[in-house]
Amino acid sequence: MHIHILGICGTFMGSLAVLAKELGHRVTGSDANVYPPMSTQLEAQGIELMQGYDAAHLEPAPDLVVIGNALSRGNPAVEYVLNKGLPYVSGPQWLADHVLQGRWVLGVAGTHGKTSTSSMLAWVLEHAGMAPGFLIGGVPQNFGISARLGDTPFFVVEADEYDSAFFDKRSKFVHYRPRTAILNNLEFDHADIFPDLPAIERQFHHLVRTIPGEGLIIHPVAEAALVRVLQMGCWTPVQTTGDGGQWQARLLSEDGSRFEVSFDGVPQGTVDWSLTGRHNVDNALATLAAARHVGVVPELGIAGLSLFKSVKRRMEKVAEVDGVTIYDDFAHHPTAIATTLDGLRKRVGSAQVIAVVEPRSNSMKLGAHRDGLAESVVQADRVYWYAPPNLGWDLAATVAGATVPTEVCDSLEAIIAGVRAHAAPGTQVVIMSNGGFGGLHGKLAAALQ
C-alpha cells in the first residue's frame, strides 16, 4: 500500500512513517519544514520527502493519506484530498488500527517529560530482554530511532493530549487504550486548542475512562490537577510516586545524578546515571513502576536506568568550543525551562550558565505562558530571548522584571554576538526551542571557534 503522510516531519508523524515503512508499506510524505533530526531519520529509512503542500504531491493518488494535526482547512493538500474523495485518516487513528491492536500498550502522558519518560521506559524494557515496540516524540540515544514495531506484545507510546486532526478534536491519547498509563503531571498548555486547565483535565479523564480494570495508573502523589482528574472517576488500580507516594527517591547527589529508590518503604537499589534534575528523578520513578507492572523487577529496571543515555534535544550536548559547552534542549514552557536550568545549575555549581530561549510553541505565540517567563530563568547568569517579528506580544516588557541580565534579540546574529561577548572557558550555553531555531546551535559553535 502507498501511504502519503501530510506533516511528516513532526515528531509524531515522522515516527508513524517509520512504523508504516516497517510494516512493508511504500511511504512518502510532505511538510512545510523539512529539517533534522526527523528529516535525517526518514531519509535514512528510504522515505521520500517533499517540501511544501503542493496538491501535485498526491498524484498519482496514494492508497491512503494520513493527515497530521498541524494541517487545517485551506491547506492545498487537504483541500485536494477532500475534493478528490481520497481515503484519509488521522495519525493516532492509524496507529491504533494498524499497530496497537491486541498489544499491551504502555502510555506516557503529561504536560512535561513524556518524551524522556517513554524513552526511559522503552529502554528499561529493552534492557530486560522484552524487545518492546515504541513510538516516541524524539530520538532516544539508546536506540537511535524514534519508533519501531518490536518483537513482543509490549508497545510504549508517548501519549500526547494535543488534538488528533482538523476533523478529530479529541486528544491523541484517547485512541491508544493503554493498559499501563503514566500520568506525569498536568499544567495548562496548548492554548491554541484548550481554553483552560479544566478542559485539559477533561481530556485526561477521557483517557482514564479507557484504561482497563486490570491495568495500572501511575501518577505523582502531589500533582493536584491529576488528583482532580481521578476524582472524576477511576476504575483502575493506582500507584503513586514522589514524596508521600509508594515510589520514592532519596537523592544521594544534589543534582539528581545518584538516588536511592524505595517502593512501599523498601529500598530497591540505587540509580547512578548521566542525567540531572529532579524532574528526571520523578520520570525514573514512574518508569520503574510501569516496568514492574509488565514484570520487570525494580532491581533490573534500576540497572537499565543506569545505562540510559537520554534523548536527542533533551539537554543534548551538541558542541564544545574552547571550553564553552553548548546544549540543545526542547524546553518551551516556563516549568520545563526552570527545571532544566535547575538541573544544570546543580551539576555545574558556580560556572556561568547562559540561556537562549525561543518562544516558539503555539501557546507561547499566543502569550499563554508570559507570566512565568521572567521567573523561569533565575538559575541562569544571563539570558538571551529571541523575539521574531511575528510574535504578537511584547516579549521585552514581559521579561523586563527578570532578576538576571536579560537581552531580547530580533535576530540570530544579535544572539551570537551577545553570547560571544560573554562566553569564557567553563561557560554552559543552553539553547531552548521546540524547533530548529534557524540552525543557531551550529552557527554559534562556528562563531566561537
Structural overview:
Helices cover 33% and strands 24% of the residues. With 449 residues, the chain is α/β, with parallel strands linked by helices. The chain has 3 domains: 2-90, 3-Layer(aba) Sandwich (Rossmann fold), CATH 3.40.50; 102-305, UDP-N-acetylmuramoyl-L-alanine:D-glutamate ligase, CATH 3.40.1190; 316-448, Mur ligase, C-terminal domain (Protein-Tyrosine Phosphatase, Chain A), CATH 3.90.190.20. Helix 6 packs across helix 7 and helix 10 (334-348) packs parallel to helix 12 (370-376). It is globular. It starts with a strand and ends with a helix.
Question: Helix and strand layout, with pairings?
Answer:
Elements: E1 2-6, H1 11-22, E2 26-31, H2 38-44, E3 48-51, E4 64-67, H3 76-84, E5 88-90, H4 91-100, E6 104-109, H5 114-127, E7 133-135, E8 147-148, E9 154-158, E10 163-165, E11 168-171, E12 180-183, H6 197-209, E13 216-220, H7 224-231, E14 238-241, E15 247-251, E16 258-263, E17 266-272, H8 278-293, H9 298-305, E18 316-321, E19 324-329, H10 334-348, E20 353-357, H11 362-365, H12 370-376, E21 382-386, H13 395-398, E22 406-409, H14 412-422, E23 428-432, H15 440-448
Helix pairs in contact: 1-2, 5-8, 5-9, 6-7, 8-9, 10-12, 14-15
